[in-house]
Amino acid sequence: MADETEIRKGERIPRRPLPQFDEVEGGLMAAISRDGLFGTALDDRNQYGPHGMIILLFVVALATGTLLYLLR
Question: Do 30 and 54 form a contact (C-beta atoms < 8 A)?
Answer without folding.
Answer: no
